[in-house]
Design brief:
Prefoldin subunit 4, 68% helix, Helix Hairpins, unfolded protein binding, chaperone, 128 residues
């Protein structure tokens, strides 16, 4: 399908072009996976922060702590330490995910420049 006002000639898609288009598609898929993973990591961080705040408010020396499917009765100090460790791990993971997302966005932007430079309006790499 030709655009109104176009010259009528279509740019040929080479094997290298197809590889770039495929790479863009893989990056785009990973980008969306990362967005979901980042959202989950942020929710986990928020939940850990809420749990930490609840611990501050409790007067109990022994608290229930969920490990998998089971609740264990653990000393409040031990739970505070565990939650802090979990927050640290989750924060580092979130940071790593954010860095990967930035890298993917940069790679996608570079591929967009190359592909739009060659194919102009004949290709659409934008989300709807």
């Amino acid at each position: 399908m030709q655009q109104a006002g176009s010259s009528g000639s279509e740019t040929e898609v080479t094997w290298e072009d197809q590889q770039k288009i495929n790479q863009f598609s893989r990056l785009n898929n990973r980008f969306h996976e990362l967005e979901d993973e980042i959202k989950l990591a942020k929710e986990t961080n928020d939940n850990l922060e809420d749990a930490s705040n609840e611990l501050i408010l409790t007067d109990d020396d022994i608290v229930r702590f969920q490990i998998g499917e089971v609740f264990a009765h653990i000393a409040k100090d031990g739970v505070e330490t565990r939650i802090e460790q979990m927050k640290e791990v989750t924060s580092k993971n979130l940071e790593k995910l954010e860095e990967e997302k930035e890298s993917i966005v940069a790679q996608m932007d570079e591929l967009k420049k190359i592909l739009y430079g060659k194919f102009k309006d004949s290709i659409n790499l934008e989300e709807d």
